[in-house]
C-alpha cells in the first residue's frame, strides 16, 4: 500500500467512528464518554468541519459538516460536568465551549480558552440554562482582563472603549494594551445586548415565535426567517413552490444589499470620506423605501414563513417590476469613487489581515472568509440559485480593502440576481401553494441561509408544533473572536476601521 493510499484510508476515520454508533435521531448519533475521546483523537486526520455545539439537558450536542454541507451530529452524556474539549483541534469550537461553560456549567477539559464571553459578572455561582442553578452575584463582580502585567513599567498604556460610548455599531466592551500607537493585545467582551433568545423560543408554538425570529437581527432579518423556515420544512419534508423560492431569493438579496451599504457607509464615515458615504446612505435609503412599498417593511421583517412568503395582496401596492435606477447608479458611483480616491487603496491594504489558514481554522464564511481566500458560499447548494449568479471571488489578501471591494461586488451581483428574478416572477403563472399543518409536526430539522455575515444555521426540534429544542449558529460569533487577534500589532488609528469592516457582530453573539 502506498503512502497516498494510506492517507486516503485514514482520512474519514472520525466519520466512520461516529457512524458506527446508534443513530438516535435524524441528525445525531449517540456515543459514550470513552468513544467521544476516541473520536476527538481522530479529528486531526479528518476533514470534518466543526459547525456548532450546545447542551440539551444533560447531553452535549456537537454538529459537524460532512463534505462541506451535510450535517452530522454527535450526542454525548458525561457522568460529570466535564468533557474533553475539541478547541485544540478545531479552533472554531472555542466560542461554543465558552458559551457552554457560562450557560450550562459544563467545563471543557484542555480547552484553548474559557474566559467569560457573555457573563457580565453575575454568573459566578450559577449557569442560567443549567438544571442546577445557583444564586446570581449582586453586585456583579468585575471581570479581570488578562493584560501584560509589566506593560506600564515598559512605558505602555491601556485604552478602553466602553459600550456606553456608542462608538461604532456593536455595544461591546473593548480593552487594549498598547505600546505607543501599536496595539499589543486586544480583548472584547459581549453580553450587553444578551436577550435570552433561545429560552424565549423554547416551549412555544412555531407560529407564535415567527415575529421574534424576524427581530433577532434587524440587519439580517431575512436570513433568520429563511433558515428557520427551512428547518421547519425539513421536519415536514415539504418543498415550497418555485414562486415562493424565487421570492425568498429576492428578499434575501435585498437584505444583503441593505446591510453591505450600511457597513460601507460606516467605514467611509470612519475615514472621513463623506462624498462616498453619502452615496451609500442615499442608495440604502432609496432601497429601503422601495422594500417598504413592495414588501411591506423597510427591514423586510415578517415576510417569510414555513412553506410560504407573504402575498402581494398583504404586503405591497402592486407587483414589483424593477429596482430603482438611481440605486444602481449610486452604488456604481460609490465604487468608482472608492477606486479613484487618492491614497485610499494604499492606506487600507495590508491592515486587518485575516489569513486563509485562520479563516479555515475558525470556519469563517461570508464576506470575511471569501475576502481571505476561503470561497465558501452556501447558496451554491441551494436549488433556487443558479451557479452562474455566484461566480468565485479571487481574493486572498484578507485585508480591509479586499472586504470593501468584495462588498461592492456582492452588491452588484445581488442587484443583478434581483432584476433577473423579478422578470421571472412577473411572468410566472399562478400555482396553488400547499401549506404545512404546524400542529402535526414531530421531529427535528436543520435549516440554513447565506446571510450578510455568512452561513446562518438553525436546529429545531418540534413536538406537536411546539419547539422543544432550538439552537442558532450565527457566523458572527467566530468572527467576533477572530477580530480580537486581528487587531494585535495594528495601529490604534486603524482599529475602528478594521472593526467596521467586519460589520455588526453583537446581535449574532448576544442571542
Automatic annotation (TrEMBL):
Pfam families: Complex1_49kDa. This is Ni Fe-hydrogenase III large subunit-like protein. GO terms for molecular function: NAD binding; oxidoreductase activity, acting on NAD(P)H; quinone binding. Keywords: Oxidoreductase. It comes from Commensalibacter papalotli (ex Servin-Garciduenas et al. 2014). InterPro entries: ComplexI_49kDa-like (IPR052197), NADH_Q_OxRdtase_suD (IPR001135), NADH_quin_OxRdtase_su_C/D-like (IPR037232), NiFe-Hase_large (IPR029014). SUPFAM superfamilies: HydB/Nqo4-like, Nqo5-like. Residues 283-435 form the NADH-quinone oxidoreductase subunit D domain. The keyword DNA repair does not apply. The keyword Oxidoreductase applies.
Amino acid at each position: 500500500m502506498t503512502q497516498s493510499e494510506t492517507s486516503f484510508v485514514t482520512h474519514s476515520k472520525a466519520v466512520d467512528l461516529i457512524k458506527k454508533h446508534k443513530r438516535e435521531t435524524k441528525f445525531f448519533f449517540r456515543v459514550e464518554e470513552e468513544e467521544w475521546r476516541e473520536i476527538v483523537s481522530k479529528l486531526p486526520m479528518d476533514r470534518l468541519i466543526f459547525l456548532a455545539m450546545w447542551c440539551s439537558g444533560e447531553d452535549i450536542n456537537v454538529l459537524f459538516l460532512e463534505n462541506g454541507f451535510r450535517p452530522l451530529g454527535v450526542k454525548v452524556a458525561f457522568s460529570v460536568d466535564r468533557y474533553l474539549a475539541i478547541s485544540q483541534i478545531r479552533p472554531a469550537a472555542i466560542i461554543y465551549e465558552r458559551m457552554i461553560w457560562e450557560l450550562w456549567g459544563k467545563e471543557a477539559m484542555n480547552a484553548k480558552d474559557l474566559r467569560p464571553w457573555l457573563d457580565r459578572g453575575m454568573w459566578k455561582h450559577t449557569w442560567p440554562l443549567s438544571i442546577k442553578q445557583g444564586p446570581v452575584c449582586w453586585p456583579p463582580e468585575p471581570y479581570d482582563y488578562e493584560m501584560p502585567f509589566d506593560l506600564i513599567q515598559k512605558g505602555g498604556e491601556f485604552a478602553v472603549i466602553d459600550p456606553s460610548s456608542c462608538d461604532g455599531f456593536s455595544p461591546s466592551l473593548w480593552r487594549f494594551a498598547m505600546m505607543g500607537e501599536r496595539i499589543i493585545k486586544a480583548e472584547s467582551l459581549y453580553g450587553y445586548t444578551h436577550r435570552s433568545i433561545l429560552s424565549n423560543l423554547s416551549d412555544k408554538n412555531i407560529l407564535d415565535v415567527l415575529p421574534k425570529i424576524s427581530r433577532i437581527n434587524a440587519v439580517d432579518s431575512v436570513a433568520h426567517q429563511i433558515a428557520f423556515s427551512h428547518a421547519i420544512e425539513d421536519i415536514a419534508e415539504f418543498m415550497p413552490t418555485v414562486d415562493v423560492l424565487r421570492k425568498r431569493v429576492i428578499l434575501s438579496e435585498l437584505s444583503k444589499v441593505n446591510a453591505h451599504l450600511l457597513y460601507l457607509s460606516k467605514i467611509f464615515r470612519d475615514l472621513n470620506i463623506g462624498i462616498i458615504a453619502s452615496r451609500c446612505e442615499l442608495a440604502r435609503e432609496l432601497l429601503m423605501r422601495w422594500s417598504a412599498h413592495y414588501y411591506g417593511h423597510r427591514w423586510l421583517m415578517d415576510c417569510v414563513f414555513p412553506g410560504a412568503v407573504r402575498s402581494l395582496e398583504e404586503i405591497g401596492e402592486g407587483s414589483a417590476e424593477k429596482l430603482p435606477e438611481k440605486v444602481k447608479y449610486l452604488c456604481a458611483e460609490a465604487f468608482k469613487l472608492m477606486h479613484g480616491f487618492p491614497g485610499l487603496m494604499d492606506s487600507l491594504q495590508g491592515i486587518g489581515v485575516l489569513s486563509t489558514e485562520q479563516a479555515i481554522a475558525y470556519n469563517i464564511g461570508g464576506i470575511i472568509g471569501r475576502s481571505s481566500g476561503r470561497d465558501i458560499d452556501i447558496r451554491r447548494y441551494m436549488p433556487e440559485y443558479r451557479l452562474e449568479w455566484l461566480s468565485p471571488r479571487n481574493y486572498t489578501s484578507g485585508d480591509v480593502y479586499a472586504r470593501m471591494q468584495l462588498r461592492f461586488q456582492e452588491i452588484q451581483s445581488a442587484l443583478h440576481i434581483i432584476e433577473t428574478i423579478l422578470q421571472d416572477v412577473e411572468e410566472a403563472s399562478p400555482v396553488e401553494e400547499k401549506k404545512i399543518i404546524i400542529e402535526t409536526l414531530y421531529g427535528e430539522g436543520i435549516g440554513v441561509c447565506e446571510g450578510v455575515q455568512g452561513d446562518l444555521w438553525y436546529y429545531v426540534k418540534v413536538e406537536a408544533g411546539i419547539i422543544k429544542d432550538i439552537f442558532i449558529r450565527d457566523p458572527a460569533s467566530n468572527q467576533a473572536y477572530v477580530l480580537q487577534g486581528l487587531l494585535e500589532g495594528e495601529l490604534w488609528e486603524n482599529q475602528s476601521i478594521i472593526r467596521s469592516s467586519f460589520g455588526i457582530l453583537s446581535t449574532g453573539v448576544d442571542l
